[in-house]
Structures are given as structure tokens and as C-alpha cells.
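Entry 14. Ran structure prediction on the chain below.
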Amino acid sequence: MGTGLRGAEVLTRVLRAASRPGLRALADDPRIRRIVEASDEDLAPKVPDDPEAVDRVTVLWKRPDMAEGLADLPWHRDCGMGGHAINCPSAVLTICLTDGSPEAGQLRFLPGSHRGAFPFVDGTDVEAPGGIGLPIEAGDVTMHYSDLMHASLPPTSSDGPYRISVLIGFSPSDAGHHRGERHYNDALLINKDGQIDHLGQRLADGG
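Output, C-alpha cells:
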């Protein structure tokens, strides 16, 4: 869940989408595997095949005017909170269910950023890099390495429809787990009310 500027709770992300059989099966779908095999790495689903697994399959909804939650993300690496040495090169395959234009909430990438160090930067900051947005339409599939800097920007339109995506994580078959029995998003799920702070605001506050 996330919180809009008016204080209402809004659904922005489902981390246990693998609880739905149709979504759970996507990680092993031959069409998906053919795309993943185009990688230079030997990749396998990042999370074990379990209907209650967190992050095996994630569904993302972009929403306008968000104050908290994971609807909008600053320039970041997915491995930026730890685990790069034993989990990368990992990758995220995205199935686009709707348009991914700036009006719908665009995903942008910073080419070449996997070769060097870059700080987290709020994607809406005037000094933030522009990066490159992909001309994504419904039915498109993208795949990016997790250590490439990318940002999920807020929609520029108040009308919608907004971007909806299905995310499937892959990593080397011999990758380790840097948080024992815990999962990647535990570092974010720290508030007693279950809400996640807007990451751009946490950056501005120095948190």
C-alpha cells in the first residue's frame, strides 16, 4: 500500500503475486525463459517456487500524487541496499500490461551506470539525471540488470490510465542470500503501520 497526498491508502504494489497460480507460473513460462536466456549469464528465478514467496512475482501499479510507499522510486540500483557481491548480476524482467509513457509513470534508465558508482538521487530533483525512457506499450517485455541505475517516476498526467507492470526477478543459479531467511524488502518494511516512506522524502531528510 501507499498513501496519497490527501491521506488515503492506495494499492501500489503486491509482493506476493505468486500466490495466484497464473502469475506464479510466469517465471517458468517457456516464452519468458527464452527472453532470459538471451542474457550473458546463467539466470534462474531469484526466489524459490512457493505460492507465498515474496518477490518471486510482483505487480506494480503507478499512481499520481503519492506521499508514501513504493509507487515512485528515485534513481537507484536494486542491489543498492546490499547483496551485490553475491546476488549480481541479477535481472528484472518486466511485462507491461499498459502504456509506459511519461504521462502513465515512466521507467527510466541511466546507460553505463552499471560500470561505476552513483548516489541515490530523487528522480524529480532539478539536478537529477534525465536518463533514457523506453517507448513501452501494453504487451511489451523489458529486461534490465539490477545494478543499472533506474528510476520509476511519478505520472505527469492526472487522468490515467497509469502504468501497470508484472515484475519477475532472476539471478545467477549459484547466487547467495545476504539476509538469511529474510527478504529484500525487509529493509523497507519497518513502519508499524505497514506503510513505506516515500523514498524521495527519505533522501531529502537524510534518512
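DSSP finds four helices and 13 strands in the chain. Will compare against last week's run tomorrow.
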